Amino acid sequence: MQKSKIALLSLAGCATIAAFSACKNTSNDNETKTADTTVKTTTAAPVKHNSVADDSLFVKDESGLDYKWVTHGTGTKMAVLGDVLEFRIIFKVGDSVLANSDRQNDGKPVSQKLEAPKIKGDLIQGLAKMKAGDSAVFRMLVDTMAARTHQPLAPWTKSGDYVVWEVKVESIKTKAEMLADIAKANKPQNDIDDKKIQDYFKAHNIKGAKKTAEGIYYTISKSGTGAHPTDGQQATVNYTGQNLKGEKFDSNVDPTFHHVGPFDFVIGQGVIEGWSLAVPLMNKGMKATFYIPSSLAYGAQAKDAKIGANEVLIFDIELVGFK
C-alpha cells in the first residue's frame, strides 16, 4: 500500500529523480502529503539569488557531490539509513528558487526518513554527512544529474547550472524514537482505534490475534519459513486491503483493481508505516492479516471514499519473497 507523500528529497528537489520539469510546472491547487507534513507547491515566479557556481568554499566528495558547511551544530550523531531527519530546506536550480520548506510548510521543519541514495552524489548522501544543528549547501551540475538519471536537461535549464540544496538539520531521530513520538502524539486516537479493532474481533469471532508494541494486531493463516526481511530490502507481496466495514479499497490479486501481479517495494520506503512494520514480521511464504491503526496508515487525512479520516485498515498479505 503506497503512501501519498512528497519526500522532501523530491520537493527538495525533484532532485533524486531529476524531474526538473515536474518541479517547474506545479499547480496552485496541488497538495501532496508526507508521513508527517503537508507541503503546498506554488506557481509563483522563481526567486533569483546569487549563483554559487564560483564559490571557492565548496569541496567535492568521492561521489561527486559538491558541498560547503555554513554552520556546525552541537549534535553528535550523524544520520544512518532508517533515521528520520527534521530539517529546513531551500531547493534551487541555477539561480531560481523552486521550493522553500519554511514558506511551504508554515515555518515548520519537514521530516524525511533517510533512505538509500537514488543516484550517486544525490542529496541523501549530503544529509548523511550532517548532525543536528548543522547547516550546509549541497550542489550537483544539472549535466551530471541528467547523465546519472538518464534524463534530458529540461528546456529551462542550461548546461553549467547547478542543482542546489540549502539545508539546516534540526533533529535526527532513530526509527524507534520516531515511532515513540508518533505513538505519544496519537495516543487518544490510538486508544479509539484499539477499541475499534477489539470490537471488530468480537463481532467477527476472531481470536488469538497478536499485538505489536506499535499497536498493530495480526493473525497468521499460513506459516512461512526462513529469515525475515529488514528495512532497505525489497519485498514481493500479494495483498488485499479493506476497511473495517469490509469494503475493499485495493488488491493485486483481485482483478477488480486492474493490477494483478506481485507487488515489489523496498521496506521503509514509499509505503505506509504500518506496512514497513508488518512485513518484517513475516517470512517467505507466510500469509497473515494485519489490523493497522490509523496513525500508522493515513492518519487524520481522508484518502478516498473508502479510506476516511482516522481509518483503521485491514490487509491480507502474503510474503512471496525478498532480497
Describe the structure.
The protein has 323 residues and is α+β, with helices and mostly antiparallel strands. The chain folds into 2 domains: 8-173, Roll (Chitinase A, domain 3); 177-322, Chitinase A, domain 3, CATH 3.10.50.40. The protein has 8 helices and 17 strands. It has helices at residues 8-11, 20-24, 101-104, 123-127, 142-149, 175-185, 187-203, 273-278; strands at residues 31-33, 38-40, 47-48, 59-60, 66-71, 84-93, 96-100, 110-113, 135-141, 162-173, 210-211, 217-222, 234-243, 248-251, 263-266, 287-292, 313-322. Strands 3, 4, 5, 6, 7, 8, 9 and 10 form an 8-stranded antiparallel β-sheet that branches. Strands 11, 12, 13, 14, 15, 16 and 17 form a 7-stranded antiparallel β-sheet that branches. Strands 1-2 form a two-stranded antiparallel sheet. Strand 1 and strand 2 (38-40) form a beta hairpin. The radius of gyration is 21 Å and the shape is elongated.
Please give the CATH class of the largest domain.
Alpha Beta
Q: In terms of structural class, how would the helical and strand content be classed?
A: alpha+beta
CATH topology grouping of the largest domain: Chitinase A, domain 3
Total domain units: 2
Question: Residue ranges: pLDDT <50 for 5 or more in a row?
Answer: 4-53
The coarse overall form would be elongated
